[in-house]
Amino acid sequence: MNLSNPIQYAGLYAAEFGEGTFFLAVHGFPLDHEMWLPLVSYLSNDCRLVFPDLRGFGKTSFPVNEITTMRQFAEDLHQFLTQKQQTSRIVVCGLSMGGYVALHFARMFPECLAGLVLCDTKVAADSQTAADNRRRRADALPTTGLPALADAMIPNLFALNADEDKKQKIRQMILRQSLNGTAAADRGMAERPDMTDWLPEIHIPTLVVCGEQDQISTPTEMKTIAERLPNADFVIIPHAGHLSPLESPKTFAAYMKEFLKKLS
Ligand code: MLT
User: Fold this and answer.
1) Residue 82: closest CA among 8, 26, 6, 10
2) Mutation test of ligand 1: which of 54, 69, 97, 195 has the most ligand atoms closer than 8 Å to its C-beta?
3) Atom 4 of ligand 1: nearest residue by CA position
4) What is the 11 CA–ligand 1 centroid distance (Å)?
């Protein structure tokens, strides 16, 4: 595996690998940049992989308020890129919550993008019940704690027969997040707007990726997202669940290589 070059701009920590097209990958909830590491050996000869830790997650020790909106995360990433002097020809890829952030980024800063990758994510807002549940979960988090959150989430993150080792790594990743950062992002997700009507306006090349067994953002739901986008392809990662890039990094990377070739 190539060695990581840790970088820090605008208060955000990121790991960087390889050379070429700037590929910014945004992690899901409540994870950090390490979820992308299985891709390094497959993709670092094809692009420059940059994996940031969002505000309140991983090694980014950034002040966190009561709520971190998806818009705030996208603004943070733009600040990061501005300070890094890399604000054009970027591919932004986001998984689940990272996909909400990537969509906000595409809406707010389209001039920065060469391509967009939406993995195992949604474009609709939460229902009132789902949003209320999230807010309750966030408020209770200091009492219930991260182990209970991990227990509740992990069964839905992976495909049946997923590797136990990968599950354990994700569990450890969840346990090391901060309570404040996690609760703030959960409240932020509850507030996120419905982006459905905006999809026809995204003309940048987009790849929509879904794990075949994703129970959170199902293949049917994600195919509909791709159909609403004017310039999108849709791919399914066989035998993978909600965390498709880390469950099947080789297959995921093969699709990324094809997508990057199309952009060049
Ligand atoms: C994620 O994987 O980021 C979460 O499933 C997002 C969410 O809770 O909506």
Assistant:
1) 10
2) 97
3) 29
4) 23
Nearest CA to ligand 1 atom 5: 96
* Residue matched to tokens 């689940």: 96
Q: Using the mean position of ligand 1's atoms as its centre, give its distance from the Cα of residue 146 in Å.
A: 15
What pLDDT is stored for residue 62 in this prediction? Answer: 81
What predicted TM-score, i.e. pTM, was given to this entire model?
Answer: 0.97
CA angle 205, 102, 222 (to 5 degrees): 65
Whether the predicted pLDDT of 185 surpasses 80: yes
CA 190 to chain centre: 16
Q: Is 115 in the pocket of ligand 1 (CB under 6 A)?
A: no
Does residue 103 surpass a pLDDT of 70? yes
Pair 251, 238: CB distance under 8 Å? yes
Q: Is the pLDDT of residue 197 over 70?
A: yes
Summarised one tens digit per residue, pLDDT across range 46-74 is 999 999 999 999 999 888 999 999 999 99
What domains sit in the chain, N to C, each tagged with a CATH number?
7-263 (3.40.50.1820)
